[in-house]
Structures are given as C-alpha cells and as structure tokens.
Amino acid sequence: MPLPHLIDYPAPLTDLPESQATWSLEPERAAVLVHDLQRYFLRPFAPGSPVVEAMLTHTAAILRAARSAGIPVLYTAQDGDQDPAERGLQGDLWGRGMRADPEHTAIVDEVAPTGSDTVLPKHRYSAFARSDLADRLGRAGRGQLVITGVYAHIGILATVFDAFQREVQPFVVADAVADFGAAEHRRALCQVASCCGVVTTTDDVLARFGRPADVDGVDETDPWDARIRAALGGLLAGDAIEELFARPDADAFELGLDSLRAFEFLDLLADEGLDVDFGEFTRTPTLDWLRRQARSVGV
C-alpha cells in the first residue's frame, strides 16, 4: 500500500474535541517527541501544503521553547534499507520503506535536532516499541509527553495509546501534527481526546512552557533576538542557530561561525544599530554577550 500523493489540506482546528483527561501540562514533568519528521514521510505532501507549513512552524516554536526551558527533546527516525525480517508486518502493508539515503532518512531542516537532543531509532508504529523511550522518560522523571509530527492516525496514535498504558500522560498538539487528510487528522484527534490523552495547541504549549515564542518562528523573549537570528541566517546552519538560541552561552565559533562570517554578521548588526567590536566579540562569542551589549547601549 503506497503512501498518498500530493496531500493538501488545512489543519481541522475549528471545534477541537474536548479531552476527557483533565491533565495540565507541567514543564518540569514534560518531554517533547518529534515523531517521524523525515523527508521520506513529508514527500507525499503537496508543495506549500498549509498543514505541513503550520506543523513545521509550530513544531519549531515548541522546540525553541522546550530547549530554552531545559525540557528534553526526543525524535523518532526510521532507518533506510531495513532487512525484511526486521521490517516485519509493516513490509506487508507499506512495502520496503525508505532507502538508506539522506533524501529519505534525514529529519527536515526546519526542525532538525541539535546536539542536546536524542534521536531514537523507530521500529514499529509506536515510538515505545523496541526502544528505550520509556526508560529515558523514567530516568529523567518525565511523566508527560508532548507529541508533534506525522502521521496522526498511525504512529502518533499508536504512541499515544502506548504512553497511556505506561502511565505517561500524552499531549497531542493539534496544529503541529499532520495526516493523510483532514478526515484522518480529525479522527485521530477525536480518538485521543475520547480515551487516552489531551488534545492541545501550540499556543497552549508555549504558554505552559513559559516562553513567549510566537508561532511565526520568532523568539521575542529579548527584543534583539529576531534581528540576531535574521543576521545569522545564511551564515550558520539552521541547527547551529537553534543550538545558539537554546544555549545562549554557547560559543558561536564552535557552532560553525568563522572570522569572515563573523565580520559579515557584525556588519549586519551595525546596520540595525548595534555596533559591536570584532575583537571583543571574538573573546566572548555568545548570544548572552550580544544581548548584554544591546541592553548596555539602550538599543
């Protein structure tokens, strides 16, 4: 059975189902799971599909908030060229699956993991199947799981059922998941809400995580963050930029910035009104230091 082709629909977010569970999301108990956002699984969506654009934007916002709050971030990702015996019954329904090629296996750039995140090999529909996800959550004292990704009515729903049966409270982010179509998307949300989890939204998750990152992908905790992020665009890889904002004391040069790019970066900041000495920046090349410089000159 092949995956669908040219999936194109807006997320069904009007009149979200009311969750029977009344759990409240608690940052100190939560972890985030980015489910199967590999290139192979996003290929079936039409270019510019609104549900995918929203899912990736919202997932990225949740990731920034989680990393800033010290909340664990985990990913699932299947291997390519799986042995038929290893692939098991999934092969009967879906064929051989993805190739061992980054064009299939890579997690998409918009939500790529950073060095502090964990990527779990995916073996079956549920992220818990034949993985140490449950052990990782237990060791970290995390009894809640915020889930984004694809596909809502298959792997995400299986993971939610599995979490519930392991005494882990699952929260499915309605506007940060996608599916074969609007009907499947809504049916999955209704199933979760009726008996095994909480259906929530990106806005609610960000409010709980205590980070005012907006859903357009800009973190506005510090008024200069948007301008610094824009200046770094094209000079650093996307995952390196996310790492810098997740760890504001990280060394930008260790994340891939070099002297030539640093000159260009500081020129762009100067155009925005923040004049930074190159030598001083090289001695303390961190986001925290740049924020302090901006505050000290009142810009």
From TrEMBL:
Domain (Isochorismatase-like): residue spans on this chain: 31-204
Checking Pfam families in the record gives: Isochorismatase, PP-binding
User: The Carrier domain covers which part of the protein?
Assistant: 243-287
For molecular function, the Gene Ontology terms on record are: isochorismatase activity
- Decide whether keyword Transport is in the record: no
What's the protein here called? isochorismatase
Top-level EC class as recorded in UniProt: hydrolase
Q: In which pathway does it act?
A: Siderophore biosynthesis
Could you tell me what reaction this enzyme catalyses? isochorismate + H2O = (2S,3S)-2,3-dihydroxy-2,3-dihydrobenzoate + pyruvate
At the highest ranks, the source species' classification is: Bacteria, Bacillati, Actinomycetota, Actinomycetes, Micrococcales
Organism of derivation: Nostocoides japonicum T1-X7
Q: Look up the coiled coil feature and give its residue ranges.
A: none
Might you give the EC number(s) for this enzyme? Answer: 3.3.2.1
Q: Which UniProt keywords apply?
A: Hydrolase
